[in-house]
Amino acid sequence: MNDPKAIRAALEGSVRAADRGNAAVPSMLAAGLSARLATVDMAKLDASFAGRCYDADLLADLPSGVDACGENGEFHTFVTDGPMFADPIKVEIGAVVVRDGFAYADLLPAD
Fold this sequence. Notes:
By secondary structure, the chain is an alpha+beta fold. Helix content is 26%, strand content 29%. It contains 3 helices and 4 strands. A 4-stranded antiparallel sheet has the order 2-1-4-3, with no helix packed on it.
């Protein structure tokens, strides 16, 4: 996407989605947002969530009290694709490292 107006609209949509919080998640996924959980706070989530795709299955597996957007620091994502991307960023999951109460998924370049 090289059109400045389209990029601006996508970014403005992202800001509006953030304002709407969790209610925006299904529409963000339907629009083509693709991400991986890169970091997980193990006080809030099991280390097995590190590296998982941010999708409907992950959302269904989140324990009660965990924000679907990770707004309370439960997790951090690495976005790999979306309407504002010209091409997806291809990654594969490497090792998951546990340190200081956090699980970090190595996201490696994929072909």
